[in-house]
Structures are given as C-alpha cells and as structure tokens.
Amino acid sequence: MSVDRAPPQEGKLGFLAQAAGQAFALQVCHSRAGFYIGTRDDEGLPFSRESAEYWGTEGEAAAGTAPAAPAADAKAADAKAGDKKDEKKDDKKK
C-alpha cells in the first residue's frame, strides 16, 4: 500500500497531535474524501486530521496551511473599503 506524503510544513505542528502529546508537523494528506491538513506519525501513517474541511486538490489544501494575513494588511484592506464607501457617498451628493 502506498502512502501519499506531502512535505511537512516547516515549524508548524498539529494542534490535535500536540494535545495527544506528539509533535508532528502539519502537512497535506490525502484520503478518499479528498485532501486535508493533518499529521503523520514517525512511520508515515495518518495520526490526526487538523482541518475541518477537505479540498479537491493538493494545492488548495496547501493554501489552507498558509498563515493568516498580517494585521497591517487587514488594516490596509479596511482602509481601502472605507475609501470606497466615501467615494459612493460623494457620488450620491452629485
């Protein structure tokens, strides 16, 4: 039986694996249901499924492991949204 293995995510450990006392790295795993974020034990066997969802491709699942946008980026996005609201208000006044 072959085991699908994507390279572990450097420095990111599975939360559920840690709760079980293990320090296994997050990685993209595959099952019949699709691709998911999980961990594998030292023998390469599935240990935990860390994501709640499944993805259709390995790339989509890998994107699910990306860190959240930094707060500065979120603030910039909020500021842009505020600018657009102001533009709409100006358009209505005309």
Describe this structure in words.
The protein has 94 residues and is of the alpha+beta class. The protein is built from 3 helices and 3 strands; from the N terminus they run αβββαα. It has a 3-stranded antiparallel beta sheet with strand order 1-2-3.
Helix-strand layout with pairing:
Elements: H1 15-19, E1 27-31, E2 34-40, E3 46-49, H2 58-63, H3 71-93
Antiparallel strand pairs: 1-2, 2-3
How would you describe this structure in keywords?
alpha+beta, 3-stranded antiparallel β-sheet, globular, 94 residues, 17% strand
Number of helices: 3
- The SSE order reads HEEEHH
Structural class: alpha+beta
Evaluate the radius of gyration: 20 Å
Quick take:
This protein has 94 residues and is an alpha+beta fold.
